[in-house]
Design a protein that fits this description.
The structure is a homotetramer. Chain A is built from 9 helices and 18 strands. Chain A is α+β, with helices and mostly antiparallel strands and about 375 residues long. Chain A has one domain: 4-Layer Sandwich (Chorismate synthase, AroC fold), CATH 3.60.150.10. In chain A, the strands form 6 sheets. A 5-stranded antiparallel beta sheet of chain A has the order 1-2-3-7-4, with helices on one face. Chain A has a 5-stranded antiparallel beta sheet with strand order 9-8-10-16-11. A two-stranded antiparallel ribbon of chain A has the order 5-6. In chain A, strand 17 and strand 18 form a beta hairpin. The radius of gyration of chain A is 21 Å and the shape is globular. The two termini of chain A are about 30 Å apart. The interface between A and B is large, with 106 and 105 residues.
């Protein structure tokens, strides 16, 4: 279904990097939910470019909610959020119209759309569109928080530099998540943060870019959420996470590291703590058989280095069918991992709202 | 949508480990496709337990196609494939009804289904159900092969032992895929294969289990398949792959390793070879912007060690809400990675058929 | 999505008239619902052919539930119901393989499936497949009845002979619905019933067939069910009702008669009765703006006369592209309106279960 | 899925009568289709109020396409069309906030949305939203016309006055459809048109309203479009048609009149004409077994009289739970049948585009 995602709650995404407006329509969201525009603005600010480690294209993200909200609350009908593109320099792209930027969607979009695609700034494939995801995701995040479900993402690794891990459970984990909420560069260990920033700047100074790993934790999700087989929590979350540009890997719990463990080491024993069933460890990332077990849901996304670099690259002119050299102009990010973290939070929140609504009904989130 | 997956072509999955029949309904499959029951049987044999490295529960998988096939060809109407469960020993499970097997879905199923779940042998969450996926997947694989699209999966790693990688492209890759087709233990390097088997047997002798990594390659897929955003090729493939029990990670191309590279190293330069646009490397696994670029599609799945082990484990009785010790009976696999590889092939094939049908129409696969 | 229908609860339908088995998979149905096989059998008996006014092909409908039910209750996982075809005479169809039976799907199926369709007895287009709908619908009907929601359908008209209308509301309507439950020929007025039977027999004796109108009432449905725009209660119900073979018209409330009224006559005034908001009349069939208003939901389906008649008809041989004469053999119904009423009940129940589950959550129906 | 409709091509609808903007997102539409904004404007003008027989609220419908169109052609990515609401008088509604207008969605929306709904001018339930459907439908209509598929709707009946019927087939039918294209009041017989107008004006002068029947014909649709069972052409068309506010009945071909015919009269005999298979009559409205047979597709929608009337009505205050009298203010249509005809054309075109794209692939419509 392409640009529509979800079952009980759906999100429809539209827009191009240099078009008039980008936006999202959120349908099935419960009536009566307070809409805090400041909170949406805050979430948008978390993905806004920040100084030397980001692109110089800074958008004000002056979003407008044009439907589905009345007197400060959701009505229960579709919510359309629009964000204008205000700071575009389309001329930067005219000269390289048919030169495939390596690692980008230029060539594949040409194959799919036969040359009708809006190529300016990556068009519909631009990370710009994630601003609309974030705006919609902010609504989902605020609803979940009212239900006691917190979501947060930190940069677990950037340019090869590792952050410390999340606290495993409980108040310590909630404190980590709260700290990220107010962080402009979502790293738990300040020293690691400084090293990462330096590494990004270094790459930028060389006309190059770096990647990283985002780690997300969800606390407060009740046990029993998710479906067997095709709509396992992992299936639906990964579906949404791989929609984020540059994500090339997703793993839950210990993920790929589990492949090297024995069952006796990988299994999470069950315990009773304060009258509640918990697991002693969380190698499985809070999910058994595709369904939440009440422990924190933990997953990681591999984010490849931004493909836009300023070094000369070999490529082809896909209109002429000839080889060519490419030197990029324009404004580009030397890393996007720090901007993508709120996108991970957002799609995670949208998925969880949908799955909660499936199980508990579409009114549930508004109560 | 839980047990239904796909858009133009849908698969519906049903059944329990110890129920009367498991099965799948494949809808939207083009008319006129020859149905080779021997080929389906061969694919089912690839997931059948094999000697010491597998469970002692061996099912004959006497499948029956009860609709949608007439005179040896698909009719274009829904194809229902049934597979009876013939070799069940439900008594093995009666004594441990409310003891949550660590790493399994027992506890989460209880939370979701309030105790109404069929708990015998894992019920609906059992890997047994993948037999139906494989039977349906065999139809998809055979159709793709007629279109020149080959899919194959090898055990890239098991118990920490690595296989050699796939040949990068062309005839060498096709040869690798063909070799896997006739292999009962899908490893490219015979020495690695022997070591893996020994390691599985060793774990089994200790009442333990091992995991591994499956690597899949697709060759012959045209450029331009996949959709932007929510139905990116990575999104839809991962959705299906995470439906396979025990898969806890999915990565495309270099996946998590990309996170540590610079953009200049991660980008795949374009070239013209024999008049065709190709990339010089394939770090992105044949996918740019969520759409195939004509290079081999390559991905890896992390398969956790089988949670069924014979060592005593700490757990809880989730009916009584008390802690307990668990010693499993029954017949279990010390590894499933070798049985799961054809499941990976199958869900990959189902996804590609669906996406080809979306783009080229539902008749396309029959022509 | 062709043979899959529904959102929170989906039904997947498969099978052919002369294939091995027909069946349905019901997914998303709440856990813990008692399954009464006698009730399913009773519902199947309501669509079984009955004497002179029906076909001589009588199937025992020995259904088997092969998944999703355990210890007499639904597990919450997909329920597959199989019904074997036992009484088939495929030879009746061999001689007329390429002669399009007027009013049937032979020619259109050929256009769609390029000759691969199973043509015997109408194949996948046969009314036979509705047996699977009825079996699945029986589960839905029994669940709704436990929630106080009753559904019943009478033959409002057959061969031009009209039954009396339903009682408008309350106990009188419930009594009408209860009476239909135990009726083998669902007509409220016994005299009209006798006339209709005579008219069907008369048509049969002339080798001809008759049609009719089915009227369905639903009582006990709470206000607030249905969605605006595309999933209005009328939209989704009509979608399902037009899936029933031979249905060519659907109207809600006064339906087409409303077109001739003035607004002042068509509007249903609101009143308070026993502290509850009701309408004084029910011209709108219990639905305003696509959403239930708490009054009985009332709709009618036009059922065309069975296209299988024994008179010689003009037709074409669509393989040869020549004109031809057709004289049918085989066993056919001179009317299906009396057999179709339980199919209308069934699809209505499936739709309502889905919409209730969407609003109140998938667990709701099991509580 | 509420406000999203379609499979290969989806439309998402949003907005409220007195909100900032209404709109639609069209996803899956093929790349390369010329977009003629004048044609969209023309279609919007067909639903614009017209003098005495319509409401005094006239909107300029200054639509903006903010995504998915580049250099005058579709890009293949989602097309978002926005239409601002410019002429709103929300004060008209403040005093009657909790008085349920009979025949409207006020009370049911309150039951569904718990009072959070935007009540002004009917909010999300307003016919105003159909402007977005028409704008999106214009794209679909123009694409179909390029494929030789013409769609047109006339007012078959209004206030009890009947128009003449469509020409049955061929050039005469195409001429009828072309004539409707340029008609501001879509009636084939000028005398009937004048009578209908007079009847509407008469009802308006009495503070009352009238309804009618819309009849739509589609010519040029190839045989073989539609799916068996749940996505029969009738099912999907009716689903979309019942989404149009005030539609209370839908029938195909002779529809309800078929119920009174015998099979020998209702069946459409096949013939060969100019080498092509046709039917001698078209009682079945071009559809057999849910699939198009190549003859004109013909259906009718019953449109109830506008529920907004100026006569005093009995109602309830659904907040207080008391009975009340209602005298409407504001600007209302004494009939909407003449404005709704282009909405019927639009949803029909959207459905056909989706079903053609399913069968022939998403690129098909752009070629």
């Amino acid at each position: 279904m392409k640009n529509v995602f979800g079952n009980s709650i759906t999100i429809t995404l539209f827009g191009e990097s240099h078009g008039a407006e980008i936006g999202a329509v959120l349908d099935g969201f419960a009536p009566g939910i307070p809409v805090d525009e400041d909170y949406i603005a805050k979430k948008l600010s978390q993905r806004r470019p920040a100084g030397k480690i980001s692109t110089a294209r800074v958008e004000a993200d002056r979003f407008r909610i044009v439907s589905g909200v009345f007197n400060g609350r959701t009505t229960g009908t579709p919510i359309c959020i629009l964000i204008p593109n205000e700071n575009t320099k389309s001329r930067d792209y005219a000269g390289t119209r048919f030169l495939a930027r390596p690692g980008h969607a230029d060539y594949t979009a040409f194959c799919k759309y036969h040359g009708n695609e809006d190529y300016r700034g990556g068009g519909h494939f631009s990370g710009r569109i994630t601003a609309a995801l974030v705006a919609a995701g902010a609504l989902a995040l605020s609803v979940l928080e009212r239900k006691g479900i917190l979501i947060g993402t930190h940069i677990a690794k950037c340019a090869g530099i590792a952050d410390r891990g999340f606290a495993a459970v409980g108040e310590a984990l909630r404190a980590d998540l709260k700290a990220l909420e107010d962080s402009s560069f979502a790293v738990l260990d300040p020293e690691a943060a400084a090293e990462m920033r330096a590494a990004i700047e270094q790459a930028a100074s060389e006309g190059d870019s770096v990647g990283g790993v985002l780690e997300t934790a969800v606390t407060g999700l009740p046990a029993g959420i998710g479906e067997p087989w095709f709509d396992s929590l992992e299936s639906v979350l990964s579906h949404a996470l791989f929609s984020i540009p540059a994500v090339k890997g997703v793993e839950f719990g210990d993920g790929f590291a589990l492949a090297d463990l024995r069952g006796s080491a990988a299994n999470d024993s069950f315990r009773i703590r304060e009258g509640k069933t918990v697991t002693a460890t969380n190698h499985n990332g809070g999910i058994n058989g595709g369904i939440s077990n009440g422990m924190p849901v933990v997953f990681r996304c591999a984010v490849k280095p931004t493909p836009s670099i300023f070094k000369e690259q070999d490529t082809v002119d896909f209109s002429a069918g000839t080889e060519a050299k490419l030197v990029l102009k324009g404004r580009h990010d030397p890393a996007i991992v720090h901007r993508a973290r709120v996108v991970a939070d957002s799609v995670c929140a949208l998925v969880l709202c949908d799955m909660l609504a499936l199980r508990y009904g579409t009114d549930y989130l508004g109560t």
